[in-house]
Amino acid sequence: MTLVAAIEAFNKSSHPQIEIFVARDGRTVAKLPRLGREIVVKGTALNQKLKVSSQDIALLCEEAQLAIAPGMTLLEAALAAMGKVARDREDELS
Fold first, then answer.
1. Which residue, 33, 50, 63, 89, could crosslink 16 as a Cys pair with Cβ 3.0–4.6 Å?
2. H or E segment to which residue 27 belongs
């Protein structure tokens, strides 16, 4: 799966979405809404210097982490509540 395809799949369930566009120089760029940054997600055959960098990947990972943080907090709370319900139920049965 390419970075562009992965971002498109991510956008199906995420808001705000990552905007993808082709720059004038031919590279495909993603605008990361939570970080307010732009990264290269696909280079161009016209200029080998315009390619995806490790910094681009690190920023994309940070964007994804910020996007899932609220869901992870909710999941942790729900799991803790489920554990409490299970323990309370065990106490009632004994």
1. 33
2. none
